[in-house]
Amino acid sequence: GNSVTQMEGPVTLSEEAFLTINCTYTATGYPSLFWYVQYPGEGLQLLLKATKADDKGSNKGFEATYRKETTSFHLEKGSVQVSDSAVYFCALSSASKIIFGSGTRLSIRP
Amino acid sequence: DVKVTQSSRYLVKRTGEKVFLECVQDMDHENMFWYRQDPGLGLRLIYFSYDVKMKEKGDIPEGYSVSREKKERFSLILESASTNQTSMYLCASRSSGTAYGSNQPQHFGDGTRLSIL
């Protein structure tokens, strides 16, 4: 069946460091892929999405490219800020529902 | 912007009580979902609804039921609350997309942190 695997956290970085959070998926067909972010005490917010192979989603300095050949959708940001501290979820959309990864907690040190 | 509103941010109930969690969305979305989120377990799908009066079991439906009498409202019901149902509950909605499935994202409420004593 469909599944999403993302790197386990927590991930701790210094401000202005480069961020990569790995996400790989298993799916039949051509799912859409998403990254969500959850700030403390809040629900999940859509960060970016990609709907077909080689699409690049981007938002707030974050990027992720839909790689069908490696079944990956890694999240990257060139220079993180303290305000990026949150939990990040990779997800894929199948016909009936969305499947989420387990989440990666990111902490940024000033 | 889509707005998904959950009726309570924090709720404290007693074991054995019947508990209602309400969720309302304002974008005429067909699909609505209830999840619970627990440390180390990620999001787990309890129930979802394709449309009014329709419901499907998710991965962990035991101990829960749902009601979708109107398109904008999706209620989660704990029939007889137990301590192991203490959790963060998240509601989400999305457009149904095409007949072959949806590539639309889900939109989430802020969550209800429920404590069962």
Fold blueprint:
The complex is a heterodimer of chains A (110) and B (117).
Chain A: E1 3-6, E2 11-14, E3 19-21, E4 23-26, E5 32-38, E6 44-50, E7 56-59, E8 62-65, E9 75-77, E10 86-93, E11 98-100, E12 104-109
Parallel strand pairs in A: 2-12
Antiparallel strand pairs in A: 1-4, 3-9, 5-6, 5-10, 7-8, 8-9, 10-11, 10-12
Chain B: E1 4-6, E2 10-13, E3 19-21, E4 23-25, E5 31-38, E6 42-49, E7 56-57, E8 64-70, E9 73-78, E10 87-94, E11 107-108, E12 112-116
Parallel strand pairs in B: 2-12
Antiparallel strand pairs in B: 1-4, 3-9, 5-6, 5-10, 6-7, 8-9, 10-11, 10-12
Describe the structure.
Chain A is mainly β and 110 residues long. Chain A has strands at residues 3-6, 11-14, 19-21, 23-26, 32-38, 44-50, 56-59, 62-65, 75-77, 86-93, 98-100, 104-109. In chain A, strands 2, 5, 6, 10, 11 and 12 form a six-stranded mixed sheet that branches. The mean pLDDT of chain A is 93. By secondary structure, chain B is an all-beta fold. Chain B is 0% helix and 50% strand. Chain B contains no helices and twelve strands. In chain B, strands 2, 5, 6, 7, 10, 11 and 12 form a seven-stranded mixed sheet that branches. A three-stranded antiparallel sheet of chain B has the order 3-9-8, with no helix packed on it. At the A-B interface, strand 5 and strand 6 of A face strand 6, strand 10 and strand 11 of B.
Strand content of chain A: over 45%
Number of strands of chain A: 12
Unreliable stretches of chain B (pLDDT < 50, length at least 5) are: none
Mean pLDDT value of chain A = 93
Number of strands of chain B: 12
Largest interface: A-B, 23 and 25 residues
Question: What is the string of SSEs of chain B from the N terminus onward?
Answer: EEEEEEEEEEEE
Cα radius of gyration of chain B in angstroms: 14 Å
What coarse outline of chain B follows from CA principal-axis ratios?
globular
Spatial separation of the terminal alpha carbons of chain B: 37 Å
Number of helical regions of chain A: 0
Q: Percent helix among the residues of chain A?
A: under 10%
